[in-house]
Amino acid sequence: MKTLGKVGRTSAAMAAAAALLIGAGGLTAWADQVVNNVDATIDAVAEVMALNLGGANGSTALRVVTTDGDGKNGCNLTGQTTVVVGVSSSSTNVATVSPSSLTFDSCGATRTLTITPVATGSTTISLTLTSNNSQGSFDLAPATFTVNVSAPPPSNTGPTVSISGATMGGTYEHGSVPAATCDVTDAEDGNSSFPATLSAITGPLSSYGLGSQTASCSYTDGGGLPASSSVTYSIVDTTAPTITFVSRTPANGKGWNNTDVEVEWFCSDSVGVLSSSVTETVSTEGANQSATGTCTDVAGTTASETKSGINIDKTQPSISGSASPSANGKGWNNSDVTVNWSCSDSLSGVDAATVSAPAVLSSEGAGQSASGSCTDNAGNSSSTTVSEIDIDKTKPTVSLVGGPEDGGSYYFGFVPDAPSCTADDTLSGVDGDCSVTGYETTKGSQTVTASARDNAGNEGTDSATYSVDAWTISGFYRPVDMGGILNTVKGGSTVPLKFEVFAGSSELTDVEFVKPTFTIAKTICYAAATDAIEVVADTGSTAVRYDSVGGQFIKNWQTPKQSGACYAVTMTTDDGTSITANFKLK
After folding, report:
1. How would residue 22 be classed by pLDDT, with cut points 50, 70 and 90?
2. How many domains in the chain?
3. Tens digits of residue pLDDT in 87-117
4. Is the domain of 71 the same as that of 126?
């Protein structure tokens, strides 16, 4: 448990403290604390305010500090929640305190008490809980302090100390923290000022100069009367880091790559970055693609830059040859045969200068051949051969190679790669390459077909029919109810949406593979069975993640801050399968 207030108290105050730890659910563990600034130290000595009878009134500021001891992370006072405490003096004939009631609506708020001396003696100022509509609990004991009223010393009044520059609960940017100054007011010694004493910075990022710091002041006048004050503030870094483009895999002279493209950026920040460089790799084929690099500083602030104009073509162009004229009635050509080459590329396009010139066969004989090649604008090359120029009436034999099996069943995302094919003809030979059509990976029944023609114009085919099956979604799990139940939850709360995705009996755990998307639609509040959401998540990242401990995907949905509205939340996976849960905000 973090301790941000005094831990020392009189025995009577400590006995009373046990009754003050009452939150929304009854007696709990130590919780957020209400503390004072009677002095600037944290020790085991009870805090004492010394006043003089007939002298100036005393004052102290009360505030709420976060300890996370009650199972609720962060400040208990969020949204519209408040805690109200009563303030009393154990001996009003010695000193009185005002106001008698204080309301806190945030952990950054401060409230001032004024203590008026009435007679010499000692009294204890303490707090009692009046009301608490938060879900957390509060420790009021650290706010307790003792007031000792003494007879006025001869010809000397106590000094007062205030702090200028930094303010209690303030938040300052790293490198721009104002100087804290101790300002002393004393009727006998005169006024003076001097720099405040600064504590070490605390917090998980203290090594980077980020966290909580306390400025303290203490002064004792010539008559021996002391005074002190302190303020605690936060040092943050909200400035985004700097991202600078460094390099990318060079393209060829025509602006294309035929391999993966790696893009690199340099990261810098005045406080510090998680990594001095970031790289992104574009591996898919396509024109005018882009890559985005993101730099993150130690405080979690990010900056991004996108580089576009990335063209990648890894696929060889398609080339085929055709012979003319056709064979005569006896199955032979009686003149020269010219073979022309046709080259195509659907992405980067064909470099026309690389296509082979037409081949002229002038020698007599059967089974002659000619070869040609071409290159696309990304530098990928293909070649082919036209052979077996003769007569053939038999269909060529065509076979699918690889790919989905005929009659096979595959889950979405696990369909084998598209097949290639082979073709054979023992007489006239195959005219060009065989081709594969109809390959699909979407859900449903699919048929892939391979076809080829021989030099006589006969066509042969081979096909395989297979099915692509949908995934199965389980969820949403507790605390969300499904089956038409209307889940009720306080507006502004964060609801954990938990679910699993299966391809048959295999659970899918990769967010990038499943690609879940969420649609939040406001709906009419219909009459239905309701169930209250009993467990909400802490406000934080709303990105979908896979919890390997719980064995499920989780998305934190931060509900709108309103009441009475109804929403339908739909999650859809990459294969188009979806589930929907209904909510009503309180």
Report:
1. very low
2. 5
3. 999 999 999 999 999 999 988 789 999 999 9
4. yes
